[in-house]
Specification:
homodimer; alpha/beta; TIM Barrel; 12 helices; 8 strands; 45% helix
């Protein structure tokens, strides 16, 4: 089954295009895990990551189609952190969640191939890391540098999400440079790279990242990349709302996935949920809110 | 001591701006390490990485000022690979080599800060990874996304090398987009970010990557970034030569560092060095050639 079909089948099953970002910031872990997650011993901290993510993934699985581990926060723990990431990826896959590894990698030639192998093919001999279903990629180095990622996606039935227009306020400095703006030039290339990689659903395995903070630009990027699944980060904490995201979806509710990280991960700290005694109940409430909000905005 | 002063002091000590790239491709390891490096058990492979890099760093230390481990090839081995990278970084620093972690990271806000912490500050509590002296960064996400890296460099006396114009043949697709070309816009920002971060040498800790394959463009980028140390990759294997690199250096021989990875790492496979029985002798010969070639081209 192609990547897009796997992804959108999960979206249909869950009745929502919600994606949970795993950005493990130890200072914001729920109380039962926080002290250990902040340990100066990376092995102790990584063990807390592992325990927290297992519980979190189990409680989130009914509400989200996909998860997006952010590699930076695991890399902060060195080798034990990478082992904790591998554990989260394996656990998410066992729960039938689509895993998009948010590594934003990008390099030239054989180095790009090494990154693709690490994150989409299990690493050396397939035995080093559980493979993600998809990977985020930074396109700055050009077509020859992106090609090894596209080839890995093709040969592995995996997905890619190229950074096109990111969710941060200053994204335009370089991404809007020139006429047409660079992000549109990148979008056209992403569409071309994915043209031959469409599956049964008609959607390609080659997707793009466009900030959920940019509803005014979504229709334009959708038109430039008519078959690319869009990963829309920035919902919730970064200020993106469900309103205005409809342009990314087709009439079947396919075409995009909406990520929230801190909006879910920090929900246990919300004053208005303090009446719920357990971090799990608060987190579940935030997941329900996100699902319902997206359903309403998309008219499902 | 500022990053630039550390870097250029080493260059003066070695009498050469040569940098050795550590791109561990198991198929090209010297025979004593090759079979283990190709193992399907990542622990076994990582142990071969460790043993090889210790010997390689010791034999290379008299000839190079700096080393540039390429994170992708360690990430292919998952957690044991990251431990092998940590070992190489620690060993290189113990040999007084400047370590530029070639990770090409880039992300927004607090995620960028997490990457900077991982690679420049030892990770969580400074205990997860030995810190590099500098890090390569991809600027595509814009100024607000680059700022946490710059702040980490400032507070840690560390260095950064932002990708400006890369060494691959297709670099221009996005990097030459617009008028002025994007790479020049990025170069101007890199110069601005580094303006307040110059040390005793007059050079900044905020540098840039410009391919050694682009001698025709070097003078232009040097003019746009008059105080930025330049990392020039692509010497040797990728076709870059020492001729034409002089524009990157000042009259004291400071200003840039020239990287060779495969030109050194694969030297033991060269037919014309087959009369030297040991991989170490062949590698040493290639290191001497690079040093002498750079000295001649730079008129030292």
């Amino acid at each position: 089954m192609g990547f897009a079909e796997r992804l959108f089948t999960r979206v249909e099953e869950k009745g929502s295009p919600a994606m949970l970002g795993l950005d493990p910031r130890p200072d914001h872990f729920p109380e039962p895990f926080r002290a250990r997650a902040r340990s100066a011993d990376p092995e102790v901290a990584a063990e807390a990551f592992r325990a927290f993510h297992r519980e979190l993934l189990e409680l989130a699985a009914p509400y989200v189609a996909a998860v997006k581990p952010q590699v930076a926060f695991f890399e902060r723990l060195g080798a034990p952190g990478l082992a904790a990431l591998a554990d989260a990826v394996a656990h998410a896959r066992a729960l039938d969640l689509v895993v998009v590894v948010d590594a934003k990698r990008g390099d030239i030639g054989s180095t790009a191939a090494a990154y693709a192998e690490a994150w989409l093919a299990g690493g050396q001999a397939g035995a080093a890391l559980p493979p993600g279903d998809a990977l985020t990629v930074n396109p700055y180095l050009g077509e020859d540098a992106c090609a090894p990622f596209v080839e890995a996606a093709r040969s592995r039935d995996a997905g890619l999400f190229f950074l096109v227009k990111t969710s941060n306020p200053g994204a335009g400095l370089f991404q809007d440079h020139g006429e047409p703006p660079l992000a549109e030039v990148v979008a056209e290339r992403v569409a071309a790279w994915g043209r031959e990689l469409r599956d049964e659903t008609g959607w390609s395995s080659i997707g793009a990242v466009v900030g959920a903070t940019r509803p005014d630009e979504l229709a334009r990027f959708r038109a430039l990349m008519p078959h690319a699944p869009l990963l829309l980060p920035g919902y919730g904490f970064q200020g993106g709302s469900a309103d205005g995201l409809a342009a990314a979806f087709d009439e079947l509710g396919r075409g995009a996935i909406v990520n929230s990280s801190r909006g879910i991960l920090h929900a246990h700290e919300r004053d208005d949920l303090a009446h719920l005694p357990d971090w799990k109940d608060r987190t579940r409430r935030a997941l329900e809110e996100m699902r319902d909000d997206l359903r309403a905005a998309l008219g499902r």
